[in-house]
């Protein structure tokens, strides 16, 4: 496989797919530029090697071209971070983009408009009336798939090489994240540095496991994590299921959970998971006590209770001290750790203690040589909030992409660059 370090970019144009999907405030100021900064090593490497850049990205989920999601709003900041004036094309496949891309000289940079202004990027028809027949839907889908080919080829025609550095969208088989790779031979497509790091981190957790391997799955709902939990059962030694999911398990086992969050249609599933864990010899670690509140609010009255003895009118919003101790013991004895999802409603300061204690235990284990991977939006927010992002082995930028990779699914963005099927 070609790599960014081996490729000679001198005099070459590179189409780089990045994930510049950054949050903007109402005045179009970037409130968190982490994603732009994460792509800088790749972009700078190509420029310093004498190449020029055509940068493609999406921003938000527009249903067509709209000022709100224009990438022109981030142009100034990208220029500042790259330390060079970045040109802008207000389209992706029109005359302007084509002319500007053709005129690019070594060291120059062109940012294309939001790729998702075009239905062809995602390859899904837009603006269909609700009452259209299945036939019409099929025809519309076929039409957009057809024009997607031209869209993809046009983007590819701007450049000599394709670089994918957008791990956040690697689980999507979109024009610029996957299909475009077909237009370049093996020697002219590669991962950017960010993507390389992400792929390595995932591979380490999936295939190169030092044991014991502990996964900490938190968050609100079992239903959204079921596939990954099942997949992890054949990989881990310890599985900590925490956060709002706890109470579905507690109720399934006959506990009293008061007003805690629960998925009543997943009680059977919870029991099945407990059984499966037993069969596979996985130690399933569930909370034993909770910090409970009399309202879903940071200012609610609080007390502690066993997870199965929560009075009516009260709900569990974080784990208790006994549970913190149990989790910490398991984590500190681990050699590989995956953390996805908080132990409680960490957005409320009064319910961050549990997540913080998990973070601290992971930091300690990492100091003793464990490999720790933190991923998924909320756990990343946690490690940033607690100031421990640089004390764990790897913080993934991908939410959905990371989880799908760990579920064992093929990520189109990765497979396409490797020339594999997806
Ligand atoms: P997810 O998006 O599934 O990873 O879930 C993350 C969300 O779960 C966060 O916004 C937390 O506030 C929420 N959460 C964690 N624990 C609880 C709980 N005990 N009750 C309600 N929500 C929770």
Q: Could you give the count of β-strands? A: 17
**CATH architecture field of the largest domain:** 3-Layer(aba) Sandwich
Mean pLDDT rating: 95
Q: Identify the CATH class of the largest domain.
A: Alpha Beta
The secondary structure category is alpha/beta
CATH topology of the largest domain: Rossmann fold
- Helical segment count: 14
Name of the CATH superfamily of the largest domain: Phosphoglycerate kinase, N-terminal domain
Helical content stands at: 25-40%
Uncertain regions spanning at least 5 consecutive residues: none
Bound molecules: adenosine monophosphate
Alpha-carbon distance between the two ends: 17 Å
Largest sheet: 6 strands, parallel
Beta-strand residue fraction:
15-25%
Q: How would you write the strand order of the largest sheet?
A: 3-4-2-1-5-6
Q: Write down the overall geometry.
A: globular
Describe this structure in words.
The structure is a single chain. This protein is α/β, with parallel strands linked by helices and 422 residues long. The chain has two domains: 13-196, Rossmann fold (3-Layer(aba) Sandwich); 209-406, 3-Layer(aba) Sandwich (Rossmann fold). The protein is 37% helix and 16% strand. The protein is built from 14 helices and 17 strands. Strands 3-4-2-1-5-6 form a six-stranded parallel sheet, with helices on both faces. It has a six-stranded parallel sheet with strand order 10-8-7-15-16-17, sandwiched between helices. A three-stranded antiparallel sheet has the order 12-11-14. Strand 7, helix 7 and strand 8 form a beta-alpha-beta unit. Helix 10 (321-332) runs parallel beside helix 11. It is globular. The chain starts with 12 loop residues before the first strand and ends with a helix. The mean pLDDT is 95. Adenosine monophosphate binds at residues 219-221, 224, 243-244, 261, 316-317, 341-342, 344-345, 347, 378.
């Amino acid at each position: 496989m070609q790599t960014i370090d081996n490729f000679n970019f001198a005099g070459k144009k590179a189409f780089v797919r990045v994930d510049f999907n950054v949050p903007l405030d109402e005045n179009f100021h970037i409130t968190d530029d982490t994603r732009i900064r994460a792509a800088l090593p790749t972009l700078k490497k190509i420029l310093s090697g004498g190449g020029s850049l055509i940068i493609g990205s999406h921003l938000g989920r527009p249903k067509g071209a709209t000022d709100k999601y224009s990438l022109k709003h981030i142009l100034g900041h990208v220029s500042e971070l790259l330390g060079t004036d970045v040109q802008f094309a207000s389209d992706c496949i029109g005359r302007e983009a084509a002319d500007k891309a053709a005129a690019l000289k070594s060291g120059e940079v062109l940012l294309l408009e939001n790729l998702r202004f075009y239905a062809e990027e995602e390859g899904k028809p837009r603006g269909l009336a609700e009452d259209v027949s299945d036939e019409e839907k099929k025809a519309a889908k076929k039409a957009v798939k057809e024009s997607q080919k031209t869209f993809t080829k046009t983007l590819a025609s701007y450049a000599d090489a394709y670089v994918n550095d957008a791990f956040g969208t690697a689980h999507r088989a979109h024009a610029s994240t996957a299909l475009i790779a077909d237009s370049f031979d093996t020697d002219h497509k590669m991962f950017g540095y960010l993507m390389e790091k992400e792929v390595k981190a995932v591979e380490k957790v999936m295939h190169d496991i030092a044991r014991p391997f502990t996964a900490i799955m938190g968050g609100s709902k079992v239903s959204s994590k079921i596939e990954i939990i099942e997949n992890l059962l054949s990989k881990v030694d310890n599985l900590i299921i925490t956060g709002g999911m706890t109470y579905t398990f507690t109720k399934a086992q006959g506990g009293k959970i008061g007003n805690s969050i629960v998925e009543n249609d997943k009680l059977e599933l919870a029991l099945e998971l407990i059984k499966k864990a037993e069969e596979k010899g996985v130690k399933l670690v569930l909370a034993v006590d909770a910090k409970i509140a009399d309202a879903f609010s940071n200012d609610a009255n609080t007390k502690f209770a066993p997870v199965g003895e929560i009075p009516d009118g009260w709900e569990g919003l974080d784990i208790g001290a006994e549970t913190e101790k149990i989790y910490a013991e398991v984590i500190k004895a681990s050699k590989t750790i995956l953390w996805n999802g908080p132990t409680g409603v960490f957005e409320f300061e009064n319910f961050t203690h549990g997540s913080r204690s998990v973070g601290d235990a992971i930091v300690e284990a990492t100091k003793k040589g464990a490999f720790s991977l933190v991923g998924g939006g909320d756990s990343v927010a946690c490690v940033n909030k607690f100031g421990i992002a640089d004390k764990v082995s790897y913080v993934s930028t991908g939410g959905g992409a990371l989880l799908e990779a760990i579920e064992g699914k093929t990520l189109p963005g990765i497979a396409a660059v490797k020339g594999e099927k997806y």
